[in-house]
Amino acid sequence: MSLVTRDTQDELVHLISVDKTYGHGERSLEALHDINLTIKAGEFVALLGPSGSGKSTILRIIAGLVEPSKGQMLYRGKSLQGVNPHTAIVFQAFALFPWLTVQDNVEVALKPLGFSSLERTKRALSLLDRVGLDGFETAYPRELSGGMRQKVGIARALAVEPELLCLDEPFSTLDVLSAESLRGEIMELWVSGTLPTKSVLMVSHNIEEALLMADRLIVLDKSPGHVIGDISVKLPHPRRRKDRPFLQLVDQVYALIAGKTQTEAEELGSAPGEPGKTRALPHAPISAISGLLERVNEEFADRIDLYRLADELDEPLDDMLPSVEAAEMLGFAKVEAGDLTLTPLGQTFAEASIQARKEIFAARIRRVPVIRWIRSMLSAARDRSLHWDVFQTALALEFSPDEVERQLDTAVNWGRYAELFFFEDDTLYMDDPAAQPIATSSEQAGE
Ligand code: ADP
Ligand code: MG
Q: In 10 A of CB 98, how many CB atoms?
């Protein structure tokens, strides 16, 4: 795949100390606070953050659909009045006109610009061809899959040859496979220089998606929306989710997000052998935790009343609580006033690939007291394994015999999934190549 060199000298967008407050007086809501950012020609920038962090508002300000309450939006160094003619937006579920054919749906964008009918047709056909909709020109939207409809939307946005193409969560309504293939197709067009646009600004709440596509991630947090990180992504395309450098960036980004939403070791409690009561593991198998996160992420707009959730899942609330507690303990969810909300990390987990999920989970449970304790015991052991009895005996000081078994079962379930340790023949083994054995003092002294 050829790499096009782009001129990144030109600054297209410059937001200077932008605030945005919706509404007035008591009812007002500060959506953005002190946003400073630039987008240069040639850049693919992703705005990443939880829902409500003002990503769409930033996009609308840049497109000239919303005015900042304070500060300035400059486009090529100038402030604009009204709609920004250099941008085009593709929304989550692109509104196509159902009574128009695919081709007419693209041409419609060109009408107000005074192109001749011949020129409109030429541009529309060329774009439909480029996005892979050749042969579907005369089809109607209802005859297309979600992914194809979204491509028509992208072709329509590109028809005006915007300098800056804005994508607002363009894949979030598609199924996993269609989203993945559309991302790949867009990246091919972008990397080969075939997109008639200089820069792309994409809104996403999915860390992997942003890292697969963008050159730069601007990470936001909410209440009010503010920038917590600006990360440049120098990986070549096509990027692969399982590549080491890719996974390291995923780690870096979610650590940034998680770090801002909860303080490290906050209320995690103590491990066996430490002062204070050992924090028990909630007895939630991985399948229950991930099932819960997936359902909430997919069906309940990231926030739901716990009683309603139990009802919807047709599960007694008591059976669901261990998963809720585990999700909270691991920083995937928060429970406030009976409502469960996914954190950005929880959303990312729910949408991540199997391998990325394991990595995220592993990084999170390493901090959990009982898991931390098991790992430190194993890494101190000579061949990084210890008999089951050792753990049972230690835990029996604090828990009932039944509870000891349940604690260890859960720990093994989590540890095996995260590939940190595993259990075989009454023995627990370390299964984490990253963990260095801790030298005992006798070894250091040189036997
Ligand atoms: P995101 O795209 O990151 O989910 P938005 O920019 O849509 O965030 O919204 C940021 C905040 O502003 C949210 O709390 C949202 O409810 C609020 N908001 C967005 N648009 C409006 C509007 N037109 N009127 C009032 N509040 C709004
Ligand atoms: Mg939005």
A: 9
DSSP state of 334: E
CB-side neighbour CA atoms (13 Å) of 410: 20
Q: Return the residue whose CA atom lies nearest to atom 13 of ligand 1.
A: 52
Chain centroid to Cα 403, Å, comes to 36
Is residue 109, in this structure, part of any structural domain at all? no
Predicted local confidence at residue 165, as pLDDT: 96
304: β partners: 340
Q: Does one domain contain both 338 and 436?
A: no
User: Which of 22, 205, 206 has most ligand 1 atoms within 8 Å of its beta carbon, as the pocket-test mutant?
Assistant: 22
CATH of residue 341's domain is 1.10.10.10
Residues enclosing ligand 1, CB less than 6 A? 22-23, 29, 31, 49, 51-57, 225
Extract the runs of DSSP E, i.e. beta strands, from 205-284: 216-221, 226-232
Instruction: Inform me whether the pLDDT recorded for 443 exceeds 70.
Output: no
Examine the domain organization and report whether 56 and 185 are in the same domain: yes
d(CA 163, CA 111): 19
Distances from the Cα of 191 to the Cα of 147, 171, 247, angstroms: 20, 19, 21
For the question of whether the overall pTM of this predicted structure is more than 0.85, the answer is: no
Closest residue by Cα to residue 324 from 351, 346, 345: 346
Residues 75 and 201 in one domain: yes
Q: pLDDT tens across 346-394, in order?
A: 888 998 888 888 888 988 898 899 999 999 899 888 889 999 999 999 9
For 179, 181, 352, the CA distances from 176, given in Å and listed in that order, are 5, 9, 10
3 state DSSP class of 220: strand
Atom of ligand 1 nearest to the CA of 169: 2
Residue 230: strand pairing partners: 218
Residue 340 pLDDT exceeds 80? yes
- Residue owning tokens 């096509």: 238
Distance set, CA 271 to CA 150, 202, 419, 420 (Å):
50, 43, 20, 17
By alpha-carbon position, which residue is closest to atom 26 of ligand 1? 22
Domain boundary, last residue among 222, 256, 290: 256
